[in-house]
């Protein structure tokens, strides 16, 4: 087992951490899928309003790759389909019409049989079942192409974002599905499956996993980001591709092959200062936020984030849970700008510099809102970005090259290893109030478009 000590980064002590108790919310009757929020796809609908669907029925496919399908998490009726500008599919609403799910089944295999399968049988099942959509690639962080052969596949057994779910707490009885999922994935690469855990995790299920190369990380966020792990374990060079997948989606793949049924449930956390009783929940994919937290909100003006507070999507209560998200975060909306706030001692203002006296107060939790505390300014190299980015990349120069649209310099500075979530902390600490993570995403989209 390889060991990595991450020195740079911060663990943000955000108020409203979830308690380790699980609420079962899988009985909700209405779900929403948002195809326009899935990066890199052009969806083509295969259903219309009023159609009846079973769990695992195909809803739409990706016109870019063609074979990648997206399926229904419940049995019911297509209640509505919302289209945006230029007929972009913004929302598919499905309402349950039965108390018991009816599944579209795929072939069933035993654990021993899985080790004998080859790619020619595995890939069609993953594509038709909707499970292929869980596999994403670096660079660009988009859904992997079945025609590619990655040099490695990465799975992270932990997350370090504020209020992230503790997988060592959640995954205890899913060992057969997790191992089966890994066995399936091992057939898709000629390289290694890298599985990462954190030093503080105590989970015998993870240590017993086979067909993986184990890695142990220690340090603050973003140590749990898959991009940071890729950078330290097996960096991406120009022309190379690696794949990665969420650990709960690995379990879903194993479940698909062992039972023949689509696993529509997952575990999430719902937390933040706006939640009365932050906790864990077992939900179906695409569950509407109102069904999860609607009766558990404090009074006030809050922002609802599907995903973690640093890199998630701003949504409303009528939105469905993001396709790849394991969190719902609710934080206060920032108020009006404070007059001469920089002159005040700031005893209750969270800071990472010596600007306020609060720098010398050690609190377990801080109340943080959406205010950026200032206006957009020129890029000044104070070193804050470098202090929270544990990569051998110079973020100041990389951001400037993206803004200048200098593709050659972007490549030389390592943009292919980057993703917006890896630079979310840079946005959080940015002295210039720049959306650094969004600039990185724009750079990746530009360089991919230009070929």
Kindly describe this structure.
By secondary structure, this protein is of the alpha/beta class. It has 3 domains: 2-13 and 107-259, Rossmann fold; 27-105, Beta Barrel (OB fold (Dihydrolipoamide Acetyltransferase, E2P)); 372-451, no CATH class. It has 13 helices and 20 strands. It has helices spanning 111-114, 119-129, 167-170, 175-185, 204-207, 226-233, 247-259, 289-293, 384-388, 395-403, 407-412, 424-429, 436-449; strands at 2-5, 22-24, 30-33, 43-45, 52-53, 58-62, 69-71, 76-83, 89-96, 136-138, 142-143, 152-156, 192-198, 213-218, 242-246, 265-271, 279-284, 302-306, 313-315, 327-332. The protein has a 7-stranded mixed β-sheet. Strands 2-17-16-20-18-19 form a 6-stranded mixed β-sheet. The two termini are 38 Å apart.
